[in-house]
Q: What sequence folds into this?
C-alpha cells in the first residue's frame, strides 16, 4: 500500500517519520510533497519526494497535512489525479466533509492525533465520510496504530473528541501546573522534585485505573477515608472545580465553533455558507 503525505510541517513530519521508523509502510511505499520542496531533503532516505499531483497518482492513502487556508489549493491540485479507490485523509478537524466534497468527492477521512503520538500513545480521533469502506477503515487504522490507539467518532462528535484527546494534554498540564505551584507555596521541596512526584503519581494513577478497570469513585474512596486528610482535599475539588470545568468546555467549544467558521472562510467559502 502506497502512502502519500502532503505538507511537511509539524503534523506531516511527525506522521512521515512515525510511519517510516515503525516500518509499518514498506520500503519505497512512502511519498512526500511540500510547497517548499527543499525542506524535504532531510526525508529523502525515508520517502520518495514528488509534487502533489505525482503523489496523488501514486498513493492509495493521501494525508493532507496543510493549514485550512492551503487546503483548497491542495485538493484542487490532487483531485484530477487521485486513484479511483484512493482514501483522502485530512488532518484538519474544522473543515467538514461537505466542504471537501465540493472540491473532491472521494473516500475521505479526518484524523486528529494527540501530542502523545510522540511516545506512541496517541488517542487518535478518526471520522469517515459515507463513501469509506470497512477495508479502508482497516487500512487506515492499522497505519495509525503506530502512533497509538484509534477511536472512530461520527463527524458531529469530532469537536468534543478533539477536546478530550488533542486539547486534553494541555488541560492536564495546566491543572497540574496550578497544583504544583500551590504545593510549592507550602513546602521547601524544590519545584522539579514536586513536579516529578506529581507527574509520576498522575501517570501511575491513570495506568492503575485502566489496568484494573477502576472508576474515579473507587480511587477516591480508596484514598480518601471518611474524616481523613485526603477527604479534606477531594471535598474542595468536588465543591469548587465543577464551575471551572464547565467554563472550560463552554469557552473551548465556543472557540471551536468560531475556528470552524474561520476555517470554512479560509477554505474559500462565504461567511453565510459557513454558518448554515
Ligand atoms: N500542529 C498540531 O498540533 C495539529 C494537531 C492536530 C491537527 N492539526 C492540523 O493539521 C494541519 C497541519 O498543521 P501543521 O501544524 O502541521 O501545519 P504547518 O506546520 O504549518 O505545516 C503545513 C505544511 O503544509 C505545507 N503546504 C502548504 N501549502 C502547500 C501546498 N499547496 N502543497 C504542499 N504543501 C503545502 C507547508 O509548506 P511550506 O514549508 O512551504 O510552508 C507546511 O510544510 C492543519 O490543518 C492543522 O489544523 C495540527
A:
Amino acid at each position: 500500500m502506497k502512502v502519500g503525505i502532503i505538507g511537511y510541517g509539524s503534523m506531516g513530519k511527525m506522521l512521515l517519520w512515525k510511519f517510516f521508523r515503525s516500518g509499518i509502510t514498506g520500503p519505497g511505499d512512502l511519498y512526500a510533497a511540500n510547497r517548499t520542496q527543499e525542506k524535504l531533503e532531510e526525508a529523502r532516505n525515508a520517502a520518495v519526494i514528488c509534487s502533489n499531483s505525482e503523489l496523488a497518482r501514486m498513493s492509495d492513502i493521501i494525508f493532507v497535512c496543510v493549514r485550512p487556508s492551503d487546503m483548497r489549493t491542495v485538493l484542487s491540485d490532487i483531485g484530477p489525479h487521485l486513484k479511483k479507490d484512493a482514501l483522502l485523509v485530512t488532518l484538519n478537524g474544522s473543515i467538514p466533509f461537505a466542504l471537501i466534497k465540493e472540491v473532491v468527492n472521494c473516500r475521505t477521512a479526518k484524523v486528529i492525533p494527540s501530542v502523545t503520538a510522540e511516545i506512541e500513545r496517541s488517542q487518535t480521533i478518526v471520522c469517515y465520510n459515507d463513501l469509506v469502506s470497512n477495508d479502508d477503515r482497516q487500512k487506515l487504522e492499522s497505519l495509525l496504530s503506530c502512533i497509538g490507539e484509534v477511536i472512530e467518532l461520527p463527524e458531529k462528535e469530532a469537536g468534543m473528541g478533539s477536546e478530550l484527546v488533542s486539547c486534553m494534554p494541555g488541560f492536564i498540564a495546566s491543572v497540574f501546573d496550578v497544583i504544583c505551584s500551590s504545593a510549592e507555596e507550602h513546602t521547601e521541596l524544590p519545584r522539579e522534585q514536586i513536579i516529578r512526584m506529581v507527574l509520576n503519581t498522575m501517570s501511575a494513577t491513570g495506568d492503575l485505573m485502566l489496568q484494573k478497570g477502576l472508576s474515579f469513585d473507587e480511587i477516591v474512596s480508596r484514598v480518601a477515608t471518611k474524616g481523613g486528610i485526603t477527604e479534606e482535599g477531594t471535598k474542595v475539588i468536588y465543591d469548587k472545580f465543577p464551575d471551572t470545568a464547565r467554563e472550560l468546555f463552554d469557552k473551548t467549544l465556543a472557540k471551536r465553533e468560531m475556528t470552524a467558521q474561520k476555517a470554512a472562510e479560509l477554505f474559500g467559502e462565504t461567511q453565510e455558507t459557513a454558518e448554515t
